[in-house]
Amino acid sequence: MRDLLAAAGHPKAALSARCPYCGGPHGPVQVTGAPWLASVSYAGTIAVVAVHPRVHRAGFVPTGLGIDAEPLEDAVRNAAGGAPGGLLRWVRTEAALKADGRGLRIDPAHVEIAETIDGWRARVPGRDCPVTGVEPAPSAERALAPGVLLSVALAWTPEGEAGRDCPTTP
Q1: Which of 13, 18, 79, 142 has an alpha carbon within 20 to 30 A of 6's alpha carbon?
Q2: Using CA atoms, how far apart are residues 78 and 83, in angstroms rounded to an integer?
């Protein structure tokens, strides 16, 4: 993650992961010293990271980034009956809840996921704007681990005016 931020021109950016509820070292990744968001997920022995600039878009600012990665095959998950609603719904929901900032303190069953032309959006209880997301494809810039399903989400917050239309695409 530090290498990604350094490549984006922020070699002195600092990372922390303090839990906002108990203060433990297991909270969402926070970036200081650079206008970026960051997130991490683990799929078995694989760690997956994402960074995104806090770039304003049409009066909105991204306020949270969430990433979730899950192995396609998981004996423990399968023995427990699988992921509720299917694995794709689960990775989208968990990415959306991470981007929202409240994580699994929100019941995943109350998150509504809908397809969009270029990704998906999630309605998260207590949030005005939907969270937008995608399942990234491998490219020259991003290597994805085989056998892992990955989803990335951004939470948006309006600047200034209340009642503005929220972003609907990632």
Answers
A1: 18
A2: 8
The pLDDT value recorded for residue 75 is 87
SS3 87: helix
With contact defined as beta carbons under 8 Å apart, do 39 and 101 qualify? no
pLDDT value of position 143 = 64
Tokens 């878009």 -> residue: 57
Residues in the chain predicted with pLDDT less than 70, given as ranges, are 138-143, 160-170
Give the DSSP H or E segment for 77.
helix 75-79
Residue 43's closest CA among 150, 162, 168, 169?
150
Residue 88 φ then ψ, to 5° = -60, -45
Tokens of 65: 């980034």
Residues 6-51 have pLDDT tens digits of 888 888 988 888 888 888 888 888 888 888 999 999 988 888 888 9
pTM, 2 dp: 0.86
- The dihedral through the CA atoms of 170, 164, 61, 129 has a sign that is negative
Q: Which residues contact residue 13 at a Cβ distance below 8 angstroms, ignoring those fewer than 6 apart?
A: 2, 5, 6, 31, 32, 33, 34, 36
